[in-house]
Design brief:
single chain, alpha+beta, four-stranded mixed beta sheet, 3 helices, 8 strands, 22% strand
């Protein structure tokens, strides 16, 4: 079995586009207020900084389509655009969850790659990831979670809980 791709851009990107839209509104409002209350140079500087942030966010969201979650016989690469990428050896997958309690998403040991979207899968690890937070689970919002669950179950004898 070769490398499998699992998209997430249809699930994660819409909320980020809303954030970009709000940022554009903020850009216009702040520019107007600062130019009226302070001066045009300060307004221009703030507008440039905000515009750069909005452009960066737009580029990062667009990259999500080109950077899917990847799975092969040896590794799982969980990523969200250019924001974050985590490579997990398949042998360290302890299980997979598609249901959890409200407290699960608040755990400091959970890496939430779904950003502003509510996750639909959590991959549990057999050992903490290196680093100061000791990540033992990774949450993501995939476009086709059922296909992801089936692919993980084919590769790993680890039990999955739904």
């Amino acid at each position: 079995m070769g490398e499998q791709r699992f998209d997430y851009h249809r699930s994660v990107a819409p909320m980020l586009w809303v954030l970009a839209g709000i940022s554009i509104l903020e850009l216009l409002l702040v520019h107007l207020l600062v130019s009226l209350l302070l001066n045009a140079a300060a307004a221009a500087l703030l507008s440039l900084l905000t515009a750069a942030g909005v452009i960066w966010l737009g580029v990062a969201i667009a990259a999500m389509k080109r950077r899917p979650v990847l799975l092969d016989a040896e590794r799982l690469v969980m990523r969200v655009g250019t924001f974050k990428s985590v490579t997990i050896p398949v042998s360290t997958i302890a299980g997979l969850r598609t249901e959890w309690g409200a407290q699960a998403l608040k755990a400091r040991t959970l890496l939430k790659l779904s950003l502003v979207a509510y996750p639909n899968v959590i991959v549990d690890l057999t050992e903490p990831r290196p680093g100061r937070h000791g990540i033992i689970a990774i949450a993501h919002r995939l476009d086709d979670p059922a296909a992801f669950v089936a692919a993980i179950e084919r590769l790993s004898p680890a039990p999955s809980s739904r």
